[in-house]
Amino acid sequence: MIGNRKIGCLSIRRPLLLLGAGAVAVASSGAFADQGATRPAMAAYFQPATTAAATPDQDGFLRRWLLLEPISKPNSTNAGFTGSYVRQALTQQYFPGQFTVVPRNGQVVKAAEPLRWHALDSTQFDVKLFNFAQSLGKPTYGVIFWAVTVVDSPREVRNVRMAVGSNSASMWWLNGEEAVGLFNDRRMVMDDVVSDRLTLRKGRNVIRGAVINGPGLSDFCVRFLDEEGQPIRELETTLK
After folding, report:
1. Percent of the residues in the chain that have a pLDDT greater than 90, as a whole number
2. Does residue 1 lie in a domain region?
3. Confidence of residue 1 (pLDDT cuts 50, 70, 90)
4. Do the Cβ atoms of 83 and 181 come closer than 8 Å?
5. Which residue, 61, 70, 118, 64, is CA-closest to 95?
6. By the 8 A CB rule, do 238 and 62 touch?
7. CA atoms of 81 and 158, how far apart (whole Å)
8. Is 2 exposed, middle or buried (CB count within 10 Å of its CB: 0-12, 13-18, 19+)?
């Protein structure tokens, strides 16, 4: 299928990938162990991140992330995810250091209940948040997911764009500045929304994202595109 997306004043046609809903097993406990038919093991979707730096995949997607266990935010439908609602919901402070601290693997934050950060490498280009929560026995519907990663660039790169897809709505920040917002009820589409022109600093760049979902699956994908719309792969992702 061919879809349209806008970059500045240009409309570029490129293949779009939509991920549909599929059958989902019922959650129980034990993340990386094989739990048989009762639940999918986390290893089907994630591997524990190592201490060595990772690189984007061949299409430029960032696969290494710190993911926070889901924050409860009951919504019986995704139809109300207007820009104003999502912006209010995702800029509200739920835990200390939400917009300033790069968390550590295993760190517990005090939200409405204690929640733990997990350092993981996605086995696919899209980060399966629903399955992340399900494999931990955590709520999968009516939730907000927080994600953080650090991108090291060997040089300053100007006029790049952050390209994001998410199911459902989400917001994304680069080095503390809002970069991308995806609003309304939406499915996960590769490069669904791209940012205005950004600059990747030489060295450390911090990416934060928040995905809000009512019922249904939830996931996201993020990559950087150069001025020609080509994926940027000469980056390293770390978690510090």
Report:
1. 80
2. no
3. very low
4. yes
5. 70
6. no
7. 32
8. exposed
CA-CA distance, 127 to 214, in Å (whole number)? 17
Beta bridge partners of 212: 144, 169
What is the pTM for the complete model shown? 0.84
Q: Does residue 26 carry a pLDDT above 60?
A: no
Residue 20 has a CB neighbour count (10 Å cut-off) of 7
* Number of domains the chain is built from: 1
> Mean pLDDT throughout 160-183?
97
Q: How far lies 5's CA from each of 10, 11, 163, 165, 184, in Å? A: 8, 6, 10, 12, 16
Residue 214 lies in a domain: yes
Longest CA–CA span in the chain (Å) reads: 51
Q: In this structure, is residue 27 part of a structural domain?
A: no
Instruction: Give the model confidence (pLDDT) of 203-240 as tens digits.
Output: 999 999 999 999 999 999 999 999 999 999 999 999 88
- Asked, for residue 84, whether it belongs to a domain, the answer is yes
We report the CATH number of the domain holding residue 159 as 2.60.120
* Domain that includes residue 111, residue range: 43-238
